[in-house]
């Protein structure tokens, strides 16, 4: 196995998961491999394909990639070919003949090929030992990129007379999608090989900016030597942002489905060959593009689900060097996705599923917890969580609430329970609730029953989450257990901080403690409000609430358009009150 790897590919060792996947394949088992982007999935079918001999069929949804893959194999002295619509009749005939002569070791095809009866009859005659499904999440209805045509492909593959193994490979699949792929492709639970989704070199950031264009221009100007991708959700936005970048002397190119094949190919090549460092694109760009030094991926809009996000963001840093994955987010993105879902022609079941996925994505943009851990938790719910110490949430400095005391109460409550319990039960016991189950287990007799009765259920889940994300509590199928490192907390060697979590009434919020509010600007804006209130003879807070002024002082909106998205700004106030505030913000900004 190692000999094949080093002989053809020049690598000395396998990456995590590769060897296990390959061993299973050569002992004729069907396998699902879940490896992160850049984890080396191709090797997982190429090495066993070479070892088994005969022809390996690689089914891939990405026509644009086939040529690259085939060229790379040929460059390593391996005979490979692809069959797709880009070839002439004559070229296809030549490849078919080579296949029949047993001269081709790897054949790449798109799922559509299986509609062709002649192709199927050709397959029947080949010495097939292995069939690989690349980007296997496309098989599953619950995946983020479902291709219905795969139903038929799977049926026809299983109908082939040869005896061969099947390998399915993907980077982004939830537990549910994994299960679905395994049942469709007849893969045993024991033959699933997963390596961690974690990629420590990716630094995740969420930025709820109201000035996305400005953010992008500043960012690319501050990272002048670096290549990156900026994803927008519509062609129009791609073009607008591209123009804005040009106006600011940033050399960029665009990529979306509205361009001709030639134009897209040129854009892709310009990027891959470092002729242009920034691509502004829709999600049509990037699947499988082999450019390892992408230093940043910025999402101008929020994608509709975490799989899409992680797959797109994961195109950064394939070379293992530190890279930024930044999600810019505006509430308006949510509406767009909700519209997509409700106007889609799918059945209700499917729509519900997409709605759930969207909710998870929105939660990612709003969470105060570690972003990396949140992503890992989404794909691997039972994985031990760890804070990454580098995402935009981990580096925030607003964890000001010392929760060590609460942590001790929670931990001693869990430790006293006679068996492992779920979130819900633990919270009920802490709050001193009496249910049949609690009585049955005699948890009401514990000294810890009701020790946190002054905390709401949501306060408690916040505290418990913090302990999970800090690795003091572990979760397995909703069951919480203490990690051995809780000793350091109980022995007072460690303390735990969290973000202030108790809901305060509005009056009590002290302006100084609100993160990011520019106090000097806030005071100026209050002055403007005061004047307006006198002119109009209405109370200052009826002009704008403190909250709205705080938002102004935080976001520093530049236009009416920026302002309308701030809570408390309606169209009437926008027209009549906002100009004065905008003026003040502008002149304030000019001074600093
Ligand atoms: P993906 O899992 O995203 O499909 P690829 O198969 O395209 O990843 O592999 C990513 C890169 O890693 C390629 O350049 C590949 O040659 C390289 N690679 C794969 N396996 C190994 C290995 N065992 N040792 C070193 N490099 C490897
Ligand atoms: Mg791949
Ligand atoms: Zn983090």
TrEMBL record:
<dbReference type="GO" id="GO:0016787">
    <property type="term" value="F:hydrolase activity"/>
</dbReference>
<dbReference type="GO" id="GO:0046872">
    <property type="term" value="F:metal ion binding"/>
</dbReference>
<dbReference type="InterPro" id="IPR044876">
    <property type="entry name" value="HRDC_dom_sf"/>
</dbReference>
<dbReference type="InterPro" id="IPR001650">
    <property type="entry name" value="Helicase_C-like"/>
</dbReference>
<dbReference type="Pfam" id="PF16124">
    <property type="entry name" value="RecQ_Zn_bind"/>
</dbReference>
<keyword id="KW-0378">Hydrolase</keyword>
<dbReference type="InterPro" id="IPR002121">
    <property type="entry name" value="HRDC_dom"/>
</dbReference>
<dbReference type="GO" id="GO:0043138">
    <property type="term" value="F:3'-5' DNA helicase activity"/>
</dbReference>
<dbReference type="GO" id="GO:0009432">
    <property type="term" value="P:SOS response"/>
</dbReference>
<dbReference type="GO" id="GO:0009378">
    <property type="term" value="F:four-way junction helicase activity"/>
</dbReference>
<dbReference type="InterPro" id="IPR014001">
    <property type="entry name" value="Helicase_ATP-bd"/>
</dbReference>
<dbReference type="GO" id="GO:0006310">
    <property type="term" value="P:DNA recombination"/>
</dbReference>
<dbReference type="InterPro" id="IPR036390">
    <property type="entry name" value="WH_DNA-bd_sf"/>
</dbReference>
<keyword id="KW-0413">Isomerase</keyword>
<feature type="domain" description="HRDC">
    <location>
        <begin position="515"/>
        <end position="592"/>
    </location>
</feature>
<keyword id="KW-0547">Nucleotide-binding</keyword>
<dbReference type="InterPro" id="IPR036388">
    <property type="entry name" value="WH-like_DNA-bd_sf"/>
</dbReference>
<dbReference type="InterPro" id="IPR018982">
    <property type="entry name" value="RQC_domain"/>
</dbReference>
<dbReference type="GO" id="GO:0005737">
    <property type="term" value="C:cytoplasm"/>
</dbReference>
<dbReference type="Pfam" id="PF09382">
    <property type="entry name" value="RQC"/>
</dbReference>
<feature type="domain" description="Helicase ATP-binding">
    <location>
        <begin position="22"/>
        <end position="191"/>
    </location>
</feature>
<dbReference type="Pfam" id="PF00570">
    <property type="entry name" value="HRDC"/>
</dbReference>
<dbReference type="GO" id="GO:0005524">
    <property type="term" value="F:ATP binding"/>
</dbReference>
<keyword id="KW-0233">DNA recombination</keyword>
<dbReference type="InterPro" id="IPR032284">
    <property type="entry name" value="RecQ_Zn-bd"/>
</dbReference>
<dbReference type="Pfam" id="PF00270">
    <property type="entry name" value="DEAD"/>
</dbReference>
<dbReference type="InterPro" id="IPR011545">
    <property type="entry name" value="DEAD/DEAH_box_helicase_dom"/>
</dbReference>
<dbReference type="InterPro" id="IPR006293">
    <property type="entry name" value="DNA_helicase_ATP-dep_RecQ_bac"/>
</dbReference>
<dbReference type="GO" id="GO:0030894">
    <property type="term" value="C:replisome"/>
</dbReference>
<protein>
    <recommendedName>
        <fullName>DNA helicase RecQ</fullName>
        <ecNumber>5.6.2.4</ecNumber>
    </recommendedName>
</protein>
<dbReference type="GO" id="GO:0043590">
    <property type="term" value="C:bacterial nucleoid"/>
</dbReference>
<keyword id="KW-0238">DNA-binding</keyword>
<dbReference type="GO" id="GO:0006260">
    <property type="term" value="P:DNA replication"/>
</dbReference>
<keyword id="KW-0234">DNA repair</keyword>
<dbReference type="Pfam" id="PF00271">
    <property type="entry name" value="Helicase_C"/>
</dbReference>
<dbReference type="InterPro" id="IPR010997">
    <property type="entry name" value="HRDC-like_sf"/>
</dbReference>
<keyword id="KW-0347">Helicase</keyword>
<dbReference type="InterPro" id="IPR004589">
    <property type="entry name" value="DNA_helicase_ATP-dep_RecQ"/>
</dbReference>
<comment type="similarity">
    <text>Belongs to the helicase family. RecQ subfamily.</text>
</comment>
<keyword id="KW-0227">DNA damage</keyword>
<dbReference type="GO" id="GO:0006281">
    <property type="term" value="P:DNA repair"/>
</dbReference>
<keyword id="KW-0067">ATP-binding</keyword>
């Amino acid at each position: 196995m190692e000999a094949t790897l080093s002989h053809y590919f020049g690598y000395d060792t396998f990456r995590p998961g590769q060897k296990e996947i390959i061993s299973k394949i050569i002992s004729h088992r069907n396998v699902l491999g879940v490896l992160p982007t850049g984890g080396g999935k191709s090797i997982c079918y190429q090495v066993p394909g070479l070892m088994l001999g005969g022809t390996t069929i690689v089914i891939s949804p990405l026509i644009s990639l086939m040529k690259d893959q085939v060229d790379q194999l040929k460059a390593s002295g391996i005979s490979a070919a692809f069959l797709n619509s880009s070839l002439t009749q004559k070229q296809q005939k030549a490849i078919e003949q080579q296949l029949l002569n047993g001269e081709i070791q790897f054949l790449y095809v798109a799922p559509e090929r299986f509609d062709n009866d002649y192709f199927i009859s050709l397959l029947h005659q080949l010495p097939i030992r292995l069939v690989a499904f690349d980007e296997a999440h496309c098989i599953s209805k619950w995946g983020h990129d479902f291709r219905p045509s795969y139903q038929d492909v799977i049926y026809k593959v299983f109908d082939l007379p040869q005896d061969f193994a099947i390998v399915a490979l993907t980077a982004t699949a939830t537990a549910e999608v994994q299960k679905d792929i395994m049942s469709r492709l007849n893969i045993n639970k024991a033959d699933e090989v997963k390596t961690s989704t974690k990629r420590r070199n990716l630094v995740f950031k969420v930025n709820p900016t109201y000035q996305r264009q400005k953010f992008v221009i500043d960012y690319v100007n501050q990272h002048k030597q670096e290549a990156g991708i900026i994803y927008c959700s519509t062609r129009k936005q791609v073009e607008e942002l591209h123009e804005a970048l040009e106006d600011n002397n940033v050399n960029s190119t665009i990529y979306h489905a509205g361009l001709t094949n030639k134009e897209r190919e040129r854009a892709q090549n310009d990027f891959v060959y470092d002729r242009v460092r920034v691509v502004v694109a829709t999600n049509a760009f990037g699947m499988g593009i082999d450019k390892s030094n992408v230093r940043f991926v910025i999402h101008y809009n929020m994608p509709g689900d975490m799989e899409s996000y992680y797959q797109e963001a994961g195109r950064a840093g394939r070379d293992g060097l530190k890279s930024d994955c930044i999600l810019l987010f505006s509430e308006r993105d949510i509406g767009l996705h909700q519209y997509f879902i409700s106007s889609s022609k799918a059945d209700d079941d499917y729509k519900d599923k997409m709605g759930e996925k969207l909710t998870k994505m929105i939660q990612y943009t709003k969470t105060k917890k570690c972003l990396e851990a949140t992503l890992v938790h989404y794909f691997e719910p039972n994985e031990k969580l760890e804070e990454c110490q580098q995402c935009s949430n981990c580096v925030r400095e607003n964890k000001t609430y010392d929760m060590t005391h609460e942590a001790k109460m929670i931990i001693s409550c869990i430790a006293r329970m006679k068996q492992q319990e779920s979130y819900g039960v633990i919270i009920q016991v802490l709050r001193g609730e009496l249910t049949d189950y609690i009585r049955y287990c005699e948890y009401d007799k514990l000294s810890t029953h009701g020790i946190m009765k002054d905390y709401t259920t949501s306060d408690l889940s916040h505290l418990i989450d913090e302990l999970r994300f800090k690795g003091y509590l572990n979760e397995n199928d909703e069951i919480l257990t203490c990690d051995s490192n809780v000793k350091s907390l109980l022995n007072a060697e460690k303390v735990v901080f969290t973000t202030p979590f108790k809901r305060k009434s509005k009056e009590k919020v002290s302006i100084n403690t609100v993160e990011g509010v520019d106090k000097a600007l806030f005071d100026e804006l209050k002055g403007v409000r005061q004047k307006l209130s006198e002119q109009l003879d209405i109370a200052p807070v009826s002009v704008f609430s403190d909250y709205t002024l705080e938002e102004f002082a935080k976001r520093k909106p530049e236009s009416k358009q920026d302002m309308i998205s701030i809570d408390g700004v309606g169209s009437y106030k926008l027209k009549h009150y906002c100009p004065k505030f905008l003026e003040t913000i502008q002149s304030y900004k000019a001074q600093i």
